[in-house]
């Protein structure tokens, strides 16, 4: 029997933001995944107590500024502070990335949770809160980074990368017909390489 892979995925509906994991060990915060529409909704972020946003998409920018910087004169695009601590990782949704960038996404996500923000007026968002990882659709790049995080940080619950991906497909409400590219296979392959790289780094540190 010949199995054919759909050339184009039907776009199934999914929530703008989905709860993926609650009360994660060490930090006690929740992890969410969302697409561009949910991520750009500050009222929804506030409702979910999301304080940290990690944007995984190189082809998506969000204008967060709601407090203009004192140096802003009106002659340029607005710059200043927004309602969340915002981090950016520029992944491509397909071939073209490196395993190092996928691993950097895990480290950036972890470091954002560990970061201690100075008590200074220019640092508007100092509180630790829930974290949202997003891309354009919240179905591939963000799934890859969060799955890697869950596998490395919670290996007892997610002993394999595949187990973490399966969990996210359920909690993110990704339709089975789109699983062949949620996340993209080449991103999964890079995440597996990232796991091996992380373990090698840990081994060197231990020595």
From TrEMBL:
Residue intervals of the Tyrosine specific protein phosphatases domain? 131-172
InterPro entries in alphabetical order: Prot-tyrosine_phosphatase-like, Tyr_Pase_dom
Protein origin, superkingdom = Bacteria
Coiled-coil ranges per the record?
Answer: none
UniProt name for this protein:
Protein phosphatase
Native source organism of the sequence:
Vibrio eleionomae
